[in-house]
Amino acid sequence: MGYPHQSHQRETPVLSKHFGDEGARTLDGWKSRGGYQALEKALGMAPADIVSVVKESGLRGRGGAGFPTGMKWSFMKPGDGKPHYLCCNADESEPGTFKDRELMRWTPHALVEGCAIGAYAIGAETAYIYIRGEFTEPLYWMNQAVKEAYAAGIIGRNAMGTGKRIDVHVHKGAGAYICGEETALMNSLEGRRGNPRIKPPFPAVSGVFGMPTTINNVETLIAVCPILMNGADWYKKMSLSNPKSTGTKLYSVCGNIERPGTYEVVMGFPFREFLYDLCGGPLAGRSFKAVIPGGVSVPIQTMEEAEASLMDYEGFVAQGSMLGSGGVIVIDDAQSMVAVIARIARFFAHESCSQCTQCREGTAWTTKILERIRDGQGTTEDLDTLLDIAEQMTGKTICVLSDSCATPVVSGIKKFGREFEALIQGRGVHHVIAAVA
Amino acid sequence: METSAAKMITLTIEGRQVTVPEGTTILEAAKQVGVLIPHYCYHPGLPVAGVCRMCLVDVEKAPKLAPSCATTVTEGQIVHVHNEKSLEARKGVLEMLLINHPLDCPICDQSGECELQDYTYQEGREDSRYREPKRFNPAEDFGGDVVYVPNRCILCTRCVRFMDDVAEDPVLNVSERGDRALIGKFEGKDLTHPWAANVVDLCPVGALLSKDFLNKARAWELDRTASICPNCTQGCNVIMETRENQLVRMRPRPNEYVNAFFMCDWGRLNYRWMNEKNRIELPMVRQGSTLVATSWEQAITAAAAVLKGKRAFVAASPMLSNEALFLLTQLMQGGAFRVVEGDEAPLPGVDDLALRRERAANVYGAEALGFTKTRDLLGGLGQGDVLVIAGEDLVGVDSAALARASQVIVIGPVLPEGVTNAAVVLPVANFAEEEGTVTNLRGRVQRFTQARQAPGETRPSWLVLGDLLGALGKQSAFFLPSDVFARLASSNKAFAGLSYDAIGFKGLPLATAEATGPKAPLAMGAA
């Protein structure tokens, strides 16, 4: 990692190589570290060949869903006579996730380069970087990088002197989690209320301004650069386990753990060693109780599940959760799971766009019940009601925000039901809301 | 809407096979086989939102329940609307919609015509599991005729979409998010668009209410009559609603050839004149200096005696039916009418729909039947003519011209202004009190029916005029307005081929209206 502390020897810093290295932020610094060679190479290739390399590398979307990037790019039909758009989803708002923030803070030119390659590969002349509104520092660095890249002719009307046009625009969000949902992001970018759109039509058919659009995460686009430089095989081989999960992945670690921060390890890295060795294990005198491995939208893991997990798309699924965004939240024995889950639900209730009935009402209702249980006012029917509401909130709405709220509730009750029951039966200690470290 | 080029798709909905054009939604296809898929946010006159999640249906082989308003049909699809899975989802939505709802049906205007009530009674839970405090927001005056009660709102956004995409005057929005969301008004804007009150009809619950109708009647006390709005030449199809014989509300009745699903605020709120109190209730004849009440037989005989052998000039109202105007032409040598005018106010999202400049129902019928449209109503009255004032109140007409008439016969609901020497007065029904047809500005002939009872011994205009023609020996009696229309259709080329049965409740264009009258349904907004 490199920032705020030294990279651990078992990490594989590919994208995070320059974290903490202030020199990498400027154009000259970035070039002297090998920057923009991938773009130069890409512009000399046919777009279809770039797509094949990315397909071959096995790169999958790093925003959470894990959709194969090369396949996503191949949905963009060349020569359809319509303008194509690339959107970079830099609206990183999933609680516990801050890897894109670090990527943009330390290596803004890597994202400009990734966007330019992506845009060229899908036949787009315009790429939008949609940055979370609260990300003031990353926004500053991204604006600087885009300005420098334009001034140097790397992007613009005549990108790197090849006669190809690639424009990159940085767009600042206004502070809504839901705008990280790809269709809500497009609405927001167009100046509309950030409500998710009904799919179909999918973005590749009708996206930003009704035109074919591809949306990729920051980490995904940046990962394309080393893939182009070193080849698909190099990337594929960086996996300790499943061939469907390739390359490296950034994890942002927070919660009750000795060394929180951003880490980069290869796919299939053992989660147990990651938590205890790389991240330094629990705080003194404490022990781990649960882990949320991929941002608060994914199911909560017990320590048994976490310690048996391999860190890749399939490995976390096999242990009752998902890789998600790689936002690892560690919860120790001093925390009340009910309080943690109530806090998560409150987040979703606050961020629901309010379109779909089940989400608008369900997230708020869930929160109220959980907070009541947390405060010692729960009843025995509450758990059944919670599970039933969660069922109504799953798979029935336009986007998955509603499902994301239901997921930690269901997994929490299933795996930590005794804590709920204890509070309901008056045996639990009323939780004092602790500031999560 | 079917075109021969459209590919047809066959699917099964609730065990019933249906074939519809490609691109039809499951919800619309289901309607065709008599299956109503419960829904809130969907409205055929608005763009699809797909947000209420009430219309989720179980499509075999699909991984998730599908929103039937936003899912188009595919060949061989098997759709279940009323199976366990779909029903459970709807129950869930209904319970969620009610958790913050005040359940104040006893004091809510929408009660009795509320889709939230209907579906909850039909298939909702008996009780609620909600034990928490409810969200509260105060009611807000939205301007125009509309008041907003946010606590009852289910955020279906029909009102927002109507203002954005049909009225094309963005006034409303969804403000806030999560369960704090409510319908908001952009700063400095009000629902003053001339078509804004349609949001009240569109609202499936009691969140948007008409100030005019507020607390006036319970829905189940109302009698409803299919009719035509008499207030301009557009001829919007309406439902006239009466309570204890008083008109209390007019609402649009869908007709894709005339007004889609909408009517303008001016037409909607201009119904009180049909409840007018200053009515003539008995036929009267002149005896010396006074008018005295008499029987219908004697009054008709007296009127016939006045008309016999004289030149008659008719000052008619363009509110009269084709039937009454046609019968008037049988006894007149000259006839004219005038029409009140105002500003035209179109509804941008629907083709050829506007509050028209000419504010009367049958301007085009009157012209087609040979009446002259004029600003000088009595200009054509010759010296010594018998003046027949039919439905005209003569308000603002220079009464000096009346002196040219040898005699005056009044056929109308009220005594005209300035007429002091009428020989005979025959009280007839107003627009809401009789049956007939009117012709709109595109030459579409549309039927209206009786919504309220006329006062006293008032009779329908077609009946009175038929009897009068009979007394003049020109005509045998008519028993029904459809008989009058049949006579009109057989004697006037423009009306040839039309009959009450054929016209039905959607209307038909005049034979001569082919060049201008729409044959295809109106193109709807940005759907």
Description:
The complex is a heterodimer of chains A (437) and B (527). In chain A, helix 2 (37-43) crosses helix 9 (218-230) and helix 14 runs antiparallel to helix 17 (401-424). Chain A has 437 residues and is an alpha/beta fold. Chain A contains 17 helices and eleven strands. Residues 432-437 of chain A have low confidence and may be disordered. Chain A folds into three domains: 22-237, NADH-ubiquinone oxidoreductase 51kDa subunit (Rossmann fold, 3-Layer(aba) Sandwich); 248-332, Ubiquitin-like (UB roll) (Roll); 337-424, de novo design (two linked rop proteins) (Up-down Bundle), CATH 1.20.1440.230. Chain A is 42% helix and 13% strand. Chain A is globular. Chain A has helices at 27-32, 37-43, 47-57, 69-74, 99-106, 108-121, 136-151, 182-189, 218-230, 232-237, 271-278, 303-307, 313-318, 337-351, 357-374, 381-392, 401-424; strands spanning 84-90, 124-131, 167-172, 213-217, 248-255, 261-266, 269-270, 288-292, 301-302, 310-311, 327-332. With 527 residues, chain B is α+β, with helices and mostly antiparallel strands. Chain B folds into three domains: 8-82, Ubiquitin-like (UB roll), CATH 3.10.20.740; 103-113 and 131-221, Alpha-Beta Plaits (2-Layer Sandwich), CATH 3.30.70.20; 284-513, Rossmann fold. In chain B, the strands form seven sheets. Chain B has an eight-stranded mixed β-sheet. A five-stranded mixed β-sheet of chain B has the order 2-1-5-3-4, sandwiched between helices. In chain B, helix 8 (322-331) runs parallel beside helix 10. Chain B is elongated, with a radius of gyration of 27 Å. The chains are: A alpha/beta (437), B alpha+beta (527).
Mean pLDDT of chain B: 94
> Strands across the major sheet of chain A, in which order?
6-5-11-8-9
- Give the structural class of chain B: alpha+beta
Give the helix/strand class of chain A: alpha/beta
CATH architecture of the largest domain in chain B: 3-Layer(aba) Sandwich
The main β sheet of chain B shows up as: 8 strands, mixed
Q: Main beta sheet of chain A, described?
A: 5 strands, mixed
Quaternary arrangement of the chains shown? Answer: heterodimer
Number of DSSP helical runs of chain A = 17
Summarize the largest interface: chains and residue counts: A-B, 33 and 35 residues
- The proportion of strand residues of chain A reads 5-15%
User: What integer value in Å does the Rg of chain B equal?
Assistant: 27 Å
Q: What's the architecture of the largest domain in chain A, going by CATH?
A: 3-Layer(aba) Sandwich
Per DSSP E runs of 2 or more residues, the count of β-strands of chain B stands at 26
